[in-house]
Amino acid sequence: MSEALEEWRTDPSPEAHGRLNAAFERVVSSSGLGGGQLHVDAPPLTEVELQAGTLSGDDADTAGLKTYKLRFGDRILAILHLDAPPAAMFSVDECARGLEIVLGSAWSRARAGQASDELAALDTATRGIAGVLDLDRVLQLITDRVRELAHARYAALGIVDQEGGIERFITSGLSRAERERIGALPRGHGLLGVIVRENGPIRIHDVATDPRRYGFPPHHPPMHSLLGVPIGAKGRSIGRLYLTDKMPGGDFTEDDERLVEMFALHAGIAIENARLHEQVQRLAIVEERERIGRDLHDGIIQSIYAVGLSLEDVPELMAEEPDEARARVERAIDSLDQSIRDIRNFIFGLRPELLEQAGLVGGLAALADEFRVNSMVDVELHTDEAQDADLPPDLVGQLLSIAREALSNIARHSRATQGSIHVDVTEGEVSMIVSDNGVGFDPTAPRGVGHQGLVNMRGRASSIGARLQVQSEPGFGTRIIVAVPRREMATWAVDRGDQ
């Protein structure tokens, strides 16, 4: 019976049902019982009806028979009817108890498998929205992903304003034509308003019969089961997720609610990140606006946040450990000074005067001087008397930008004490190596959201036909190698109109 239930759990086919029913028949007959009927209704197990002996057939009469509710903890898994002749009464309870144990084991395995699948689905869904910085796109992705996650026919995301009114309403499961036929956005009446006001999850069997309903507008598709879950960020409510019509049928469950609530936490973070990025985009007026936005989020904001955390208990330390309090304040001042320098560098970007100081070599010398002032890392410049007067100015600018990005990574991530820049300009190519003696990293490891330094450098190198190589491993520093063939420089200069 246990093996047949496991087969039914993984493949609820007619053949598996036949083998499961045959196993049930053997259990009933071997217990000396006249017949049995077992109705299993315990998701995630597929619902099944089993019959044996005198209780086979659609017209089987269960009146007056021994009836059991088979449980796992407080949860009822199945209803069991047994037809026991007087001679077999001693084994009826034992048979029911054995079936309860077998069924409970099958259900717990199914629930564990479901939990694993749910976590995998949640991971896929959250990865799908992580790092998306376009607000419109992330809102639509959230709506699409939560519909898939909860197995709903329809889903919607309502973004609320300061007064709790719905200011944006994104849907999934409706075609554009269907959405347009429905008309204006919902105003938050009826059940949508209840979910907004209560600011908590809500599950409804049928919205069409719920007394709190407001009614659907013309051309709105019929909807029945409903699950609503709030989305929050930074301690405030920013929206609601609405899911309707559980598939293939039935109501949304507590498990659905729990899963969507976990997804909503990630959705709130994604929405807030996209909003912050949108604000940065509006303010950015320089060519590097996207890089600045990502770097601000990844580096400076996190640094300032860390300073705030370090100062939270300073008032208590001032009385109890004044030396520690003083040290923390001094460290905070140093960190804020570094953040100010970083912000200044981000705002002004690559200064025009760098290009006015004898091209690539002079620009690198200015960068090295600035780096020494703004960091605790010494950097050496080796140009080997390189001549770069014939290099296109725009190409020099890209190389200087790569060098500046590499130096910025050294200052923020490497924990190095020494850095160097080597430049060699020959008839065949221009090469530049930026290296450090820091902690290094694994270049093949996935990079976290917001770590765009290497991406920016690769993009710049590709734009001028250069090869960029990253050599690093944990504990052995990092080397950024850029090589531009002379033939690529000539082609690039012609394309840019420099010749």
Keywords:
Beta-Lactamase; 499 residues; alpha+beta; 50% helix; 5-stranded mixed beta sheet; 15 helices
Describe this structure in words.
With 499 residues, the protein is α+β, with helices and mostly antiparallel strands. It has four domains: 2-117, Beta-Lactamase (2-Layer Sandwich); 130-280, Beta-Lactamase; 286-349; 352-496, Histidine kinase-like ATPase, C-terminal domain (Heat Shock Protein 90). It is 50% helix and 20% strand. The protein has helices spanning 2-10, 14-30, 89-129, 135-150, 176-182, 190-198, 254-283, 289-311, 314-320, 322-348, 352-355, 359-374, 393-414, 453-463, 486-496; strands at residues 35-40, 48-53, 66-72, 75-83, 152-160, 166-172, 202-204, 226-233, 236-246, 378-382, 418-425, 429-436, 467-472, 478-485. It has a five-stranded antiparallel sheet with strand order 6-5-9-8-7, sandwiched between helices. A five-stranded mixed sheet has the order 10-11-12-14-13. Strands 2-1-4-3 form a four-stranded antiparallel sheet, with helices on one face. Helix 1 (2-10) runs antiparallel to helix 2, helix 3 packs antiparallel against helix 4 and helix 13 runs antiparallel to helix 14. The termini are far apart. Mean pLDDT is 81; it is low at 350-357.
